[in-house]
Write a structure and sequence with these properties.
This is RBR-type E3 ubiquitin transferase. This protein is of the alpha+beta class. 31% of the residues lie in helices and 12% in strands. The protein contains five helices and twelve strands. The strands form six sheets. A two-stranded antiparallel sheet has the order 1-2. Strands 3-4 form a two-stranded antiparallel ribbon. The protein has a two-stranded antiparallel ribbon with strand order 5-6. The protein is extended.
Amino acid sequence: MTTARYRPTWDLALDPLVSCKLCLGEFPLEKMTTISQCQCIFCTLCLKQYVELLIKEGLEVAISCPDAACPKRGHLLENEIECMVATEIMQRYKKLQFEREVLLDPCRTWCPSSSCQAVCHLKDMEPTIPQSVECTSCSLEFCSACKGNWHPGQACLENIPVASYLPGETSSFFKSEDDDAPIKRCPKCKVYIERDEGCAQMMCKNCKHAFCWYCLESLDDDFLLIHYDKGPCRNKLGHSRASVIWHRTQVVGIFAGFGLLLLVASPFLLLATPFVLCCKCKCSKGDDDPLPT
């Protein structure tokens, strides 16, 4: 019969602590997790929260190392993710993986019927050319390009975004551009975005592109949200007039503050320029002098 050997407390204090790059805390090695691809190490709690956040937000399918300066650009393997997240979160991760695979596969597409979530296969010869696709699950025949009813000899409607819905969502073929659908795609990177509530000014988490939810027009340069003062989206921002005015006052104040700061600092910059140039010339001259013997 073996007994556990007593270990004094001063020996326990000598155990090395490892620093976590996410929370900057120091922990014993048994509370750390190493990513196998890049050997970067983080505390298990921080890495778990990082992985769960990306999966819940649907930001990444291939979860990269959280260290922005990772030399090997490593990714977490599926078995590593499965060991640290709950079962329902892992199921969502696998679902996101499968949806992304279908989205990137030119020979597969989703059935546009709202009551069917089947994956349909296109002909391998010319998958980029519009063709008739028949769903093997619900027998719906639709166009592979616009997802509307099959229209032999007729071109797809130009104002209809291609594949602008998720599996099970009703086809956008019969919807107007300003329809407040719950799920749309970013007009820049084509990532799916779901809007439950809130204002109509949207920002894609994937590419940081700002756009109007109703008409998908870009709002990247519209800091004052003038887009909602006229046109079909007038007064559809989702905020009161007072809050919009307060937002514009804040934006104008920020730009005015930067302008005033630049105006005040410009004379000092002009006065300091000769001294900076003089110091640079002296340093350059000093580098060219021979070393003393």
